Sequence to fold (346 residues):
Amino acid sequence: MARLFFLLSGEHPSLPFSELESIIAAESYEYQVLERLTQVLSVETDINSTKAIEFRSALTRVCGLELFNCDAVLTEIVKELQSVSLEDFLKSGESFAVRIKRIQRAAPHIIRIELERKLGELILDKVKGAKVNLKSPQKAFFGILTENRFIFGLKVAEIPTKPLFERSPQKRPFFHPSAMLPKLARCMVNLAQPRNGDLILDPFCGTASMLIEAGLMGYRMLGLDVQSSMVRGSLRNFLHLGVKADGMIVADAKYLPINRIDCVVTDPPYGRSATTLGWTTRRIVESFLSNVGEILPKGRRICIAAPKSVKIGEMAKGLGFKHVESHLVYVHRSLTREIAVLEKET
Fold:
C-alpha cells in the first residue's frame, strides 16, 4: 500500500472525486481515503492503481506518490523535505524538475517560482550527482498548494485532456445536438464501475457517446435506440473511432430485447432536440427502471443522467434500487442535469 495523491479537475465540485474512487473500486484495489481537499484527493492504496486511473479517468489530471503533506508554510515545507529520504526516488546522474500547482489562489504568501527553485536546490543537496532538467526530466517532483496545505511527491502519471477534445461530437461523422461530451460520458462509464469483460448497456444510445468511451476503455458494449437513424449513425461513429459494439439494436427501451447485462450507462432523451415519442422524460425513465432490474444482477450499477426535475434518486428507491449518489451538472439556464448512480438491491 502506498500513499498517493491526485490532482483533480476543478470543473465540478464532486464528480472528479467520485470518478476516482469508482475506478479504484472497479479495479478491485483496497483503498482508504486519507484527505479530501480542493481538487486534491489523498488515498492509501496499491500504487499499481495509478495505471488504471491513467488509462480510464476523464477528470484526474496528475497522479503522485506522496512524500510529505504539511501546512503551507515555507519553513515547514523546507523542514519536511530535509527529513525525507530520496534515495528510492532519484539516483545520482538522473535529471529532475520541480513543478508546483496553486489551486484557487491558495497560500498567496508563497511565491510559486521561488518555492520550485528552493525545493530544487534542496533536492540537489540531498542527491549528489542529480541534475536539473526543466524540459525533459527523467523524474518530476510535483507539489500542490491547496487551501492551507502543501502536498508534495513524485509524479507517477499525468493525464492529457487533448484526446477527449479530439473526440468531441462535432468531429464525428454523425452529429446530433443532444450528444454528450466525451469527458462527461467517460466519467459516467466509470461511475457505473464496469469490470474487465463486462457488457455495458446504453438503452438510449443516440450518437453513442457513452458506448464510444466504454469501447475505448476495452469493455463490451450494447446499444439500443428507438430511431434507426441513430443506430446507423452510431455505427458510423464507431467505424470512425475504431471501436466495435457487441450489438446495436433498433428497439424501445421500455421493452428490452435482451436477458442480461452487467451495468448501464445512459442519457435518456429530453429537451427540444430529442425524440420522446410523446412520453415525458420522467415516464421514460420510470418505465426503463421498472424493467431493467430483471436483467441487471444484484449489486451492479446504473449511471443515468436526466433533468434534476425528474428526481431520479427518489424515483429509483421504490423500484428495487439503492440511490448511491447524485451530482448536479449545470448545462444552461433551463437545464441542470442530475447524474445519478443507482445499485440493484433485489
Observations:
- The mean pLDDT is 94.
- The longest strand covers residues 60-71.
